[in-house]
Design brief:
The chain is an alpha+beta fold. It is built from 18 helices and 23 strands. Strand 21 and strand 22 form a beta hairpin.
């Protein structure tokens, strides 16, 4: 029998204090500076190598680094690390960008200048990283990717990298050659962090192991940064990242009267973030519960409209949904306004795929031609459809989030019942696996499912790639019409992506949207989601960007901070 351990009153008091303050993975630790709760910790600080869970890395990457371009409030492309650029085409059909870098940009040590070679090294590393397919538009990237698939030698791979379309013409001039014209390229450079530069003066010649150590173990002012903050410490076990202000950044926060920079930020993950916010322990928290959003609205609640769309997806291979006219009738049976009424403080019901804030979105005239709420027309079209005597199974993600999925699913079932369609609801924790699961007969098992699609960059292309033949749409529409509609859809996108005239490109994207939503009716858009958060009144410039990432690039605080900060 083991001896019983008796604790002294002083030790018991310490333990009680630790429990009461919620220390540990889910609670609060007394770090200096501002504390901000994020949904997840980064999985890497190596922005060139990245990994498949890249969404969790964006808050840190965006505040510590910069791209060649940036986005204006209207999502148009503006200069970033590049002060200007030219765009040309070669006789072979390649697209060539010549970027002229700002000469006043220094890395966070205040000494090392930004150079074109920083992009060459960074992009070469990205071509060997975990998301190397993202770099496939570069001329020569296909060869590099193929060599890696075949397990080619390091020498052969390095030679192929040297032939890719990224080269330093001089210290401040970068030439980028794409295999073919891509209208979305400049928008991707602003936000997709794989295209950010790396400090070649520090990393050139190091082994891959040494480079990984450089990023994975922040110390002595490294890894270097270009943004207003740099990473000082990364506590994986405690799930927090400590950021300190970078006084050498060429992109300081825009201070207003009575404002100053915050010298220290701590990003932390906590299961009790809302409770910590209520107790004044943290300065920012997302409101990720649609249920909570239906309660009394806090005075400090803020909303960011996302470049995102929530929609109903049809299994085009399974009767009776294998007929476009049936799918269109379903789209016309849905009253989006009633569907969203009262579920959120504000909502943006929609029957179009591209959010109106997106450059190149449909005009009102084009939107009016897409399937929208016409219940009598829907009822008439569905009245004699065979196969609707069985209930259709609607699959959606289980659990609470900022999208009120359960309530939307219930209201969808009620609306479809009014036009004679019975629906059963199936909330799944294994959602992705379930929508991909096939029946013994071949088609996927679901009838309809609910999904959100968010933009990765401010361009129509980002919304359409999901529905291409190799996209993860799980609809089976590549089999419809012998594959001709899908081929026509991809041809429209190819032409639009390569079109230098923005007005003409927009027309082509509008045709692609009409083919997807009307002619083939693969999906029925429902609304454009928003992200809600709460922030202290002394914080300024902290926001959620349209891509659903925490944005700290313009963070400022009142010059006279409150006691509980």
């Amino acid at each position: 029998m083991s001896a019983r351990v008796r604790l002294s009153p002083s030790v018991l008091l310490v333990l009680l204090v630790l429990v009461a303050t919620g220390c540990g993975r889910c609670g609060f630790q007394a770090d200096p500076g501002l504390k901000i709760v994020v949904p997840a910790m980064p999985s890497t600080l190596d922005w060139s190598h990245s990994d498949p869970t890249s969404w969790a890395n964006y808050p840190v990457m965006l505040v510590t680094q910069r791209g060649l371009t940036t986005l204006a409030p209207d999502n148009s492309v503006r200069p970033g690390l590049a002060r200007a650029w030219e765009r040309d085409r070669t006789p072979e059909g390649h697209e060539v960008y010549t970027f002229h870098l700002r000469e006043d940009v220094r890395w966070s040590d205040g000494v090392t200048p930004l150079t074109a070679q920083d992009f060459v090294l960074g992009w070469h590393r990205a071509l060997k990283g975990r998301e190397r397919g993202e770099m496939s538009d570069l001329r020569g990237a296909e060869e590099v990717l193929a060599l890696q698939e075949r397990g080619a030698s390091a020498e052969a791979l390095q030679a192929a990298l040297a032939r890719t379309g990224v080269e330093a013409l001089d210290a401040h001039t970068l030439r980028v050659t794409l295999s073919q014209p891509r209208g979305y390229f400049l928008a991707r450079l602003a936000n997709v962090y794989l295209f950010f530069p790396t400090p070649s003066a520090v990393l050139a010649g190091r082994s891959e192991e040494a480079v990984r150590d450089y990023f994975d173990r922040p110390r002595d002012g490294h890894p270097l940064a270009l943004g207003p903050y740099r990473v000082e410490a990364w506590d994986r076990a405690g799930e927090r990242v400590r950021l300190v202000y970078n006084p050498h950044s060429a992109f300081p926060p825009p201070l207003g009267p009575g404002e100053r920079v915050a010298p220290v930020l701590t990003l932390l993950k906590s299961e009790v973030g809302p409770a910590l916010y209520e107790r004044g322990r943290v300065a920012f928290v997302f409101v990720d519960s649609a249920v909570a959003l239906r309660g009394p609205t806090p005075g400090d609640l803020e909303r960011e409209p996302l470049l995102s769309t929530y929609f109903l997806v049809f299994n085009t291979e399974k009767p009776p949904l294998d007929r476009p006219e049936v799918r269109r009738a379903f789209a016309r049976a849905l009253d989006r306004e009633a569907l969203m009424a009262g579920l959120l403080p504000e909502a943006r019901p929609s029957h179009v795929l591209l959010p109106p804030e997106l450059p190149g979105a449909a005009t009102p005239e084009e939107a009016a031609r897409l399937p929208h709420y016409e219940p009598e027309r829907a009822r008439a079209a569905l009245a004699s459809v065979p196969g609707l005597d069985r209930p259709l199974r609607l699959v959606y993600r289980s659990g609470d989030s900022f999208v009120p999925e359960a309530a939307i699913a219930e209201r969808l079932a009620a609306q479809l019942a009014r036009v004679g369609v019975q629906v059963t609801l199936d909330a799944r924790s294994d959602f992705s696996a379930e929508v991909a699961r096939r029946t013994p007969a071949g088609p996927r098992a679901y009838d309809v499912y609910l999904r959100r699609l968010g933009a990765d960059y401010a361009h129509p292309n980002t919304f359409f790639t999901l529905f291409e033949k190799n996209g993860l749409h799980q609809t089976g529409w590549e089999t419809q019409g012998g594959g001709e509609p899908m081929a026509r859809f991809e041809a429209l996108l190819e032409r639009a992506d390569a079109e230098p005239d923005l007005a003409r490109a927009r027309e082509l994207y509008a045709q692609a949207q009409a083919l997807l939503l009307d002619e083939m009716a693969i999906i029925a858009p429902l609304y454009h989601p928003d992200r809600y958060f709460r922030a202290r009144a002394f914080l300024h410039g902290v926001d959620v960007d349209p891509f659903n990432f925490l944005s700290l690039r313009e963070l400022r605080v009142d010059a006279t901070p409150p006691e509980d900060r």
